[in-house]
Write a structure and sequence with these properties.
- By secondary structure, the chain is α+β, with helices and mostly antiparallel strands.
- The chain has one domain (30-166).
- Helix content is 16%, strand content 27%.
- It has 2 helices and 5 strands; from the N terminus they run ααβββββ.
- The protein has a 5-stranded mixed barrel with strand order 1-2-3-5-4.
- A hairpin with a 4-residue loop joins strand 4 and strand 5 (130-144).
- It is globular, with a radius of gyration of 21 Å.
- The termini are far apart.
């Protein structure tokens, strides 16, 4: 009896330790978009001016807006920023549970032309445990709704944690 009980415990132990949890998938690992060479050429041909190129990057329960870079600069030089919206509200400043296209962060991965300036302050974003530069938003213009990958063609988006870093 004791031997058969030990054998059952051993088998159950094997089953439990052999279980593997697979991470949830939030879409394809490849977010689509151009090749690296085409992306470099597109960035190199961008109009320059007194504005930034912004990519909305939403992670649940966080208050950062997304990434900003100067026109002509690689996304690897982009900053993850928190917007100061005292002057202008962001396009997605909407309720969390609104209808499709009319809720907070519906514009995840949209690309914008952004006007404003860095305030020189760092803002603590508690849900990501990061100190991020504050950017005072003055205006924005939508450039692309489906620009594809941000830092690398194999980018993977997870809405529950920061997965895209330059």
């Amino acid at each position: 009896m004791r031997t058969s009980f030990s054998a059952v415990v051993f088998c159950v132990g094997l089953l439990i330790t052999s279980c593997e949890t697979t991470p949830p998938s939030y879409g394809p690992a490849n977010m689509g978009g151009p090749s690296i060479a085409v992306r470099k050429a597109q960035i190199g041909a961008e109009e320059t001016g007194d504005f930034y190129i912004g990519r909305r990057y939403y992670v649940k329960r966080t208050w950062f807006w997304g990434y900003l870079r100067k026109p002509g600069q690689s996304w690897s030089r982009a900053n993850l920023v928190v917007f100061n919206q005292n002057q202008t509200r962001t396009v997605d400043n909407l309720p969390q549970n609104g209808p499709p296209g009319a809720h907070h962060a519906y514009d995840h991965n949209y690309e914008y032309r952004i006007w404003g300036h860095y305030t020189g302050q760092d803002v603590y974003e508690p849900n990501s445990n990061l100190f991020l530069p504050e950017f005072k938003l003055a205006n924005y213009e939508l450039l692309k709704r489906t620009p594809g990958w941000l830092f690398h063609p194999n980018d993977h988006y997870d809405p529950h944690r920061l997965t895209l870093n330059p």
